Amino acid sequence: MSEIQLVNAPAGVEGSGFFATSLDKAVGLARSHSLWPLPFATSCCGIEFMATMGANYDIARFGSERPSFSPRQADLLMVMGTIAKKMGPVLRQVYLQMAEPRWVMAVGACASSGGIFDTYSVMQGIDEVIPVDVYVPGCPPRPEAIIDGLMRVQQLVRGESLRRRGSDEYRELMAKYGIQ
After folding, report:
1. Which residue intervals define the domain NADH:ubiquinone oxidoreductase-like 20kDa subunit in the entry (predicted)?
2. Is there a single domain that holds both residue 98 and residue 18?
């Protein structure tokens, strides 16, 4: 097991071994298997997400069986579908209402790049208003692709240091989006 190791006890300590790991790895492992997604679905990608939640694909196997429809109780924002420019401030407000740490997954071509809708009213990717951690391609993406995206978010969460959110790099990223 790469995250957690069983090591021999040092000299003078009774017992055959003790359980040792770093706090970052233990917290990352726990967080990665207890993500509470907030689905922000506006079109056909939302239907694929519903299929992902169903019995055939069962996203609950990955610890995400509790979709939260309150941003204050979610830590993974899953944006699916076409986002109009008028919805940009709403999406940003939902993102800001989420507690730290929070992650964002752009599901489908429309959320990632505007898709086929290169018009004045459609946002050409949600990364114009909020930072995105994982992009899931497809129009619409199959449930397998959404599950793969969730597994990539889990990898990010597992490897993220507890100190990352307080780092200068993270503050610069948030300042780029005008978030203090």
Report:
1. 44-152
2. no
Our CA dihedral for 89, 94, 97, 99, rounded to 10 degrees, sits at -130
Q: How far apart (Å, rounded) are the C-alpha atoms in residues 54 and 61?
A: 11
For 96-111, what is each residue's pLDDT tens digit?
A: 999 889 999 999 999 9
111 lies in the same domain as 141: yes
Q: Is 139 annotated as ligand-binding?
A: yes
Instruction: For residue 6, give the 3-state DSSP assignment.
Output: strand
The answer to whether the predicted template modeling score (pTM) of the entire model surpasses 0.70 is yes
Residues 63 and 91 in one domain: yes
Structurally, the chain folds into a number of domains equal to: 2
Is 45 a known ligand-binding residue? yes
The answer on whether 54 is annotated among ligand-binding residues is no
Give pLDDT tens digits for 20-33.
557 778 888 888 88
